[in-house]
Each structure stands twice: as structure tokens, then as C-alpha cells.
Amino acid sequence: MEGDAAHAGGGVNLPVDHASWRVRLRRWAASGSGDVLGAGVLFGADRVLTCAHVIRDPATGQRPDRVQVEFPLLQGLTRTPHRTATVAAGHWVPPFGKAQGDLAVLVLDDPAPLPSPVALHRTLDYRGATVLVDGFPEHQSGGQWLTGVCRGPGGEGDERVQIDLTGAGADSGQRLRGGFSGAGVREEGSDRLLGILAQADERGEHGYMIPAATVAKYFRRFAERYVTGPHAIPGHRVVSADAARTARPHGLQRTVTRWLNGDADAWDTEVLFIAEDDDRARQALYVVLNMADREQSPQLAVRPVGPGTDAPRDGGDSLLSRAGIAPRVGSIGLVLDLEGAALEDPGQPELREALAVLRHELRHAAGRRAAPRRRPAVAVLYADRSATEPAAAAKALGELAASGARLLLVVRSSTHGFTYALAEKLLPAERAAQWLLRIGSRVDALADTERSARRLFHRVEPHVVDPPVATGYAARAALWTVQLSNEMRPLTGRGGPRLLEKLSYAEQAVDTYLLRAERAESELRTVLDEHLRLRGLLRDHLARLARRGLAEHPDAVGPYRAAQRLLLAGPCPLADAERAVTAFARVVRRLADADAGGEA
To answer: Which InterPro entries match (predicted)?
Structure first.
């Protein structure tokens, strides 16, 4: 991982193994060196990545004016070289939420004595990877190496990756403590730099790494220069933040989310049909895959930190999150878009790189001593539009699945040769029957939700004008299951592509109906809760007057009866009822204040 070129600096010929990327950070002091703050990683000649909390000014809690950056591991020098650095414009994300953000990039006032050769590397699945962490704890000026194993995502939105230290313990010395924050995390064996350490638990036995993809999502320009490895989402399938925030929920997003999150009723290999002319369904697919990508998802949830601000701004709640469509951030490992491309096409370097990285990581995961708890999720788009021969494509994808990849196979046509190969080679014989049962459980949930909504409607309708209307799709959906079941009865083996296509579209429709039913139920419950709240307020205000013997006061009787009539006598607009209750509350406060003044 170290550089392979010697460089003359300060009249001293520096050796090849210079470890120029490992830097120590100190509080800047005009009179000399201040306290050690932690660690950082040098990129190129003048950029240092670290955690925002490491360098934050303790007096103000804000970004510092200056930081001292030291290069303690350069050999052949009589003194430790150092530079002064400031926070790069637009590269300050202080900690927020629950373990979110906490990143900063420093710019050196003068180039480093030796440029750094390292880059951060995106990886598809961190689980089980053995890593090395080098920090600068107190009284160990040369640093200390610790080893650990990555266990899985952690923190709010899964922005971070948990690391369990090897041989950690209070008496072993193998524990994380002050001086490790901001240190680079290297994968043992490959020496790839996977991220930087951000925090540890109280005992120092577990740490949390900010991985390369999380860095890239906050600092995109930095990532263009210093982050390698394939993007999880191809550039032409990236969805803008505004489009994602305003996207309408679609039933297929429920299926994709369950697969991404590894839910109990999701299968390792899922099939999703999208019609050629269904642009809305395709966009819905791209949105939910973007939401699952560490690098793209913060675009959907958090706006960048602007100049002069020290806290990220919330991008607002999206329609999808309100509908409960919330794939875990980082749950998508890779999206392979095969539309018009062959699997081994030399004219598609990004696709070839992504496949090479996926195969490498699957082989590497199989050889790990600590087996990963979960396999990478790989969405394969439009293999039925690939230039690869159908049987060869099915064989290659089957090999990925056998090596540990979980597949989402998105296709457009049931008549293409690939869908026949898919049905025969990639799915179990009982898949059609399993699918019908799963759709039946969705229909049951739809029926239950609609019954609940109707009960709420009957409670709301006598009191509120134009309440939301309960949906009535369950009977239609139940009929589909009967029809699909009849189509399956003559079958003695697996379902063919046409039946799989019908099952896919039926499940998408049922889930879409369920989303609408849940929205209607939620809106009705909100209206009922608001009506009951206003009735409770009216009752409480009247009780306040009654305690003072003012319930029949002439000034109070009229406003009370007006509010009571709106809330109890018949359907009314809730806004009118709220204004009436508010008017009565003002009368109550005025009479109560006057009564209290008279007592004084």
C-alpha cells in the first residue's frame, strides 16, 4: 500500500516504505505543538481526511481555524515534519443524528514532504473482513496497530460499519482509545484502505468505521479523485434527490425493499417483471435502489453543509418513507445493467470492473475465517435485453448465486429466451406455488387494512365533512389469486415464464393496493384523532371554567355552544371546529385571568 517512488525532501532521500499517508493531528498553537487530537489519512500532496469531532474546537464546538498535521512515520529525518492545515470549503460535516456525518477534509498550507499513494476503496460487503487500524494513543508517538473483524452496518441509516477488535480486553492493551479516531482502516491481505475509524464503545472493544461509500456520498468531488472501486449504482441509473423525495410509492418497491432488507418472506433470488412501456415502474425501481445505496441515499435525506453553517440540513420527509418503504442504507451491493451489453463485453469497462470486483469479493468472502452473516445483494437489470446468449447469461448468474450473491432479476418479457432459462436454471421448481402463497398473504393484509379503514370511516363520517374514503380492492385481488391458482392446477412441475410474469404483476398490483389502503387508513386515523383531540380540548376548557364557577358565564356560553355544535351536531370542516375551540379557549383564559385578579 505504501508508495513505490523515492522523493527528495529537505535534502534527505526518503526510502520507498515511507508510510506518508498516516498522519497525526495536533491542536494548533502559536507557541508550538498542542495536544494530540487523533489521526488522519493523507491523500495526494495536500488533502487529509479525518473525523470532524477530532479537530472540532472544544470552546466553540465549531470547525477550527487551523490544525497542525504531523508526519511521524517518515524515516530518515532528524525531526518530525509538520504542516498547518485548514478545513477545505464545503468539506465539513459535523456529527449529527445518531452516528451520522462526522467527516472533514483538511487542506495543507504547503504540500506534504512526500505525496500519498493511497485511495479509499468501495467494497460490496464488509462482513467478515479482517482489518488493521493504526492510531496515535497517548505515550505512543509512533502509533499502535490493532486488528479487528468487520461485522456489519451500524449507526443511524447504516452509515458506518462495526469492527470487533481481535483479542480485545482491559488488560491486553488491544483496545481503542483516544488517538485512534480518524485513523485509516486497511483490509488485511489486500491492503486496501476501506475507510476511517470514527468511534468506539466505552470498553474500546468495538469500533465503527466510516466506509468509503459514506465518504463519497458527502464529499463527491473528493471521491472523484480519491475513491476507487465500482459504484453500486451505474451513473445512468442514479436518481436526483428531488425526484426521489417526490416519487409516488409503487407496489414493486415493497418487494424490492423486502429483498434488500433480507426479510423472512423474501427469497435469495427474486424475479421482477416490468413491462416495456411502464416508465413509472422503472423509475420506482431506480428510486428504491438508490435509496439503498450508501453513496446515493444521503442525497435523498440530507442536504450538503453550506458555507457558514455547521450542521447538515434535513432534506425533508419523502412520500416513500411515509409509506414505510425504507430499504436499509448500504443494503444494495451492486447493480448490473445488462441492457444492450454482454457480460464480458470489452467495450463496457465499468460493467467488467463491477463483475470482476463482485467475483473477487465472493471468493474472498468464502475464504474468510469469520464467515459473513449476509451475502451481497446484486440487482441484475434486463438480462433479457443483453447481448449475451440466454443460456450463457443464466449460467453466469447461477454461478454468482452459488458463490453467495443474492439476486434480483429484473426482466421485461416472458417470451425471451433468457426468461425460459431463468425459470429452468435459476428458480426452484416450487417457486410458482410459493409465490401464489405469498400473494395470498398480501391479499389477507389488504383485506384486514380495508376493514380497519371502513370502521374508522364509520366513526368519522358523522362528524367530519368529506373524510378520506376507505378503499375496496380486496375482493378484486382475491379473485386474481383464484384465477392464478386455477392456472397452476394443471401444472405438474415448475411454472413457466408466462405464469411467473402474471404472478409478478399480480404481486405488484396487490402491494400497490395495500399502499393505498394503508394511506387511507392512516388519513382516517389522523382525522379521527384530531376530532377527538378538539373534543378533549373543549371539555378541558369548560372544566377550567367550572372549577371557578364560571361555566354559565354569559361570555362563555355562546362560544362553547358554537364549538360544541360543530363537533357533535353534524359533519363539519375540522378547520372550522378548531377555530371555534380556539375562540372559546381565548374566552376561558380571559375570564380565568380576570377571576384570578379579583381574588388577589
So the answer is: Peptidase_S1_PA (IPR009003), Peptidase_S1_PA_chymotrypsin (IPR043504)
